Amino acid sequence: MSRRAGAVLAILLFVLATVGRAAVSPEEMLADPALEARARALARELRCLVCQNQSIDDSDAPLARDLRRIVRERLLAGDSDEDVRRFLVDRYGTFVLLKPPLEPATIALWVGPFVVLLGAGLAVFRYLRRPASTTHPEDLTEDERRRLEALLAPPARD
Amino acid sequence: MNDTDRLAARPQRRLWLYLLPLALFAVVAGFLAYGLTRDARVLPSALIDRPAPEFALPPIPGRDTHGFARTDLGGEPQLVNVWASWCVPCRAEHPLLTRLAREEGVIVDGINYKDQTEDARAFLTKLGDPFRYIGQDRDGRVAIEWGVYGVPETFVIDREGRIRYRHVGPLTPRDVEDRILPLLRELGLGAS
Questions:
Q1: Which of A147, B64, B150, B167 is the most exposed place for a label (fewest CB within 10 A)?
Q2: Which element (helix H / strand E) includes B157?
């Protein structure tokens, strides 16, 4: 195996090893595959409060593990996904949801991009629809034409 | 309209266009100033002004036989401190809790978070025990009821047993003087 192929393989293995790796360990998993799938989906949209930009599905933090366990316990107890979310929001606030809910404090976040898009679209539309410019630069005077020609003429060779 | 009129009208009409980037900059700078100066690790509590959660914790064996439960809260304004012997900042804030309890007469109850009995007892023997009641939260479930995401955390509880303030991280003398004590007094500390 050439050195380059080896390097490519090493990078590939590294990427495979890091992408999509969840922190959930086998003993945490539920026996019922359908419930386990719901638990995984929920865990992916719940924020790990300690590491903040990881979901509890990704995080190895002890609190994330505790929260994963709670999610599974609640699902086993017959809670709907919405019940589980509400349980955690009641204790940790909407910050625990990685996807912010639509509420007065987050209106700008949700609507902002569309307002910008609409504004930019309008500006482009108006720019394209504007009447073609009717002003022409004045023609050069005879004097100016001569100066221009002198400037553009190839330098005289001796 | 001839050409000279058009040219003359332009600066007036376009003035807001030139001010627009400035206004946008001001808005963005405002958000950044707010976002970059606040501590992102300190989360607002979802429990402020709500009744403290229901819980009942067993005692640390050998310290007492009471434990700590929801029913212990209320009557007097007080603090609830979540701590652990393995938590270094808890050691740092311990003298302040002791001072509040001994000198200001503040009731301080403790939730001993994910700790070993021996370690917790050794911590209290070595550094002193300012707590009225302590509940042992071995698996951290009660702390989750309180919305705790790291130790230490300190809650101010009013006479009705509601959570009025939450402090994340170790208390500093300034926190105590500027926030904790004034709030406790406002809630009627030492009034009865």
A1: A147
A2: strand B153-157
Q: Give the residue on B whose Cα is nearest the Cα of A135.
A: B3
Q: What is the ipTM of this complex?
A: 0.74
Rounded Cα distance, A124 and A44, in Å: 39
Q: Measuring CA to CA, which residue among B48, B152, B42 is closest to residue B95?
A: B152
Residue A71 forms contact with B (CB below 8 Å): no
**Taking CB atoms and an 8 Å cutoff, what residues of chain B touch A95?**
43-44
> If 0-12 CB within 10 Å is exposed, 13-18 middle and 19+ buried, where does residue B112 land?
buried
Q: How far apart are CA A98 and CA A54, in angstroms?
A: 9
Write out the CATH class of domain A19-98.
mainly alpha
pLDDT digits (tens, 9 = 90+) for B74-114: 999 999 999 999 999 999 999 999 999 999 999 999 999 99
Residues paired with residue B112 on neighbouring β-strands, in sequence order: B83, B136
3-state secondary structure A65-90: HHHHHHHHHHHHCCCCHHHHHHHHHH
Q: Report chain B residues whose CB lies below 8 A from the CB of A67.
A: 144
User: In terms of Cα–Cα distance, which of B188, B157, B25, B13 is closest to B81?
Assistant: B157
Q: A62 and B150 in contact by Cβ < 8 A? A: no
Taking alpha carbons only, the member of B114, B124, B108 closest to residue B73 is B108
Q: How many angstroms separate the CA atoms of A123 and A68, rounded?
A: 48
Q: Given an 8 Å threshold on Cβ–Cβ distance, is B3 in contact with A93? A: no
